[in-house]
Please model this.
Amino acid sequence: MNWSNWATVADLATALGTLILAVATFAAVRSSNLTARVAQQSMLISLRPVLMAARREDPPQKVNFGDSKWFRVPGGQGMAEVGEGTEAEPADAAVYLALAVRNMGSGIAVLRGWHFYPEWHRDPEHASLEEFQQQTRDMYIPAGDVGFWQGAFRDPADPRYGPARKAIEGHQPWTLEILYGDHDGGQRCITRFAMLPPATMEPGSTSDVRWFAAQNRHWNLDRPDPR
Model:
């Protein structure tokens, strides 16, 4: 074998070594990217909240609306009531709403907004984000623990006030969608709750302000939807 043949063999060996190194580098980069994605997914899961109605055996939640109005909301239930208004304007009574919730996820849930339907709403799509009413304060539900949501209609000129008051005074079913996310501001979700009145009520009893709560739909806004 002459010198030129040895040179050719050396070039081929170098090329083969370079190819093997490139394949190994590609595999290492791909494995590194996969590991990074898995780590990121694990981190997001550790921050992810999932809201459901509180269980019947969960402790009741004490809810204060800031105007001397209080609710004691049992687990598995929501409460709603039309206030007394003022002596001068009895028709201006606020409509108070509250719901006991449990965070089944592994991250803190921060409640950011809500949308009210004055009926048992079964549309497969949630309300647009522009229709959600922002919470006057951020509400935090610890991971694996219980808490509450609260909202109110106070302005009779609000087009939502009349239908809401009619549904509550008539003790009719209503529906609530809650917008929330993790404490880092991401992973926004919407959970819909159906609020159904008891089948039987005694006039003047505390059951007049209670509704049985059940979640029936869940949407992801910042990641693929579960459906």
Residues 200-206 have pLDDT under 50 and may be disordered. The CA atoms of residues 139 and 217 lie 21 Å apart. The chain has two helices and eleven strands. The chain has two domains: 1-47, 49-220.
